[in-house]
Amino acid sequence: MITINTSLHNILTLAVAFGAGSRKAVEVYRRLSDCGNLDLPIQKAIEVSDLDDTVKARILGVKDARISGIIDKCNENKIDIIPIYDNRYPECLRNIAEPPLILFVKGAFPDFESEPVFCIVGPRKITDFGKKAAYSLARRLARAGMIIVGGAAKGGDYATHSGTLSAGGKCVMVAADGIVTQMNSKYHQLCKDILEKGCIISESPPDYVARRYSFPIRNRIMAGLSLGVAVIEAPEISGTLITASHAADQGKDVFVVPGNPVDKEHKGSNALLRDGAIPLLDASDIFCRYIADFPEKINIENAYKDQNSKKLKKNSQKNSIANLSKEAQLVYNSLDKSEFMIDDLSGLGIDSGTILSAVTELEFEHLIKSLPGGTYKISD
Question: Can you give the pTM of this predicted structure?
Fold first, then answer.
């Protein structure tokens, strides 16, 4: 049960007055906090602070009834409120350029400072290859013990959370909508599944309905909570690229799955590679980057070890093949020797960029392995 106090009332007032992602809200909060005025009633606090009249009027325009309504809605739906001054607030998020003043949280909130937390992003209109890649990568990372951060939309986000859940892993869904709005959306069942082990986070009040601009603002939180970001694919203009940009600005790692250079679906993500992002060909690229920092948290063996019997493993492999994109199925079914090179696939009637994407997908599904010298091997 959340009980209101002056500090919480004040910071909720600032969050409502200026909205999500506001630099002005953070500036006013820091000014009030540095002067020791955050614990004063909001009207008194702004009277004794050096704020211009426009800012004061905006703050005073938030009615007490609105703040009480937010608290009641949170209590009714078992939503926690974590303000920026709270010890539970992630330090990794507190240090970004525009940290959210408030986090609304439903579910099990991880300790972001001590857990390997990683973000996977892809566009809403994602290709079949992208869906499989996001699903497979999330599954591998989750099996290894990593916590996976994703958004709350169709396409790449849905594939990411589905892959994490299939491995019994923990998801962090960062929503642009308020949590009650998100829970009542068409993704209601996905939200329920996520809440069994993970959590849903939003910086907006529970009943908030996201606008178009809410999503790019939200993306800074996804990057801020994570060690790094994996971009599955992105066209030239995409919210996925905004998340990658936030990650780069925050000093986080940006991994990118290479795509066909002539496909518009990969034009933006391939540009990230050109500009210095880390090529992502297998989940091991991510494990190698973070295993030294989390030796007791990341179990690479689990990522690739089938947890069932040998017979079930064979059936699982058949299912993986059936769920591949048609290009990856074509490549896999054409393999007539245990070891091969990309040039060996030139007679399939598809261009080299598509072949490379298909081979990458097969690697994500662990159906083939890469060997030194540009050689690949069919997995046992």
Answer: 0.84
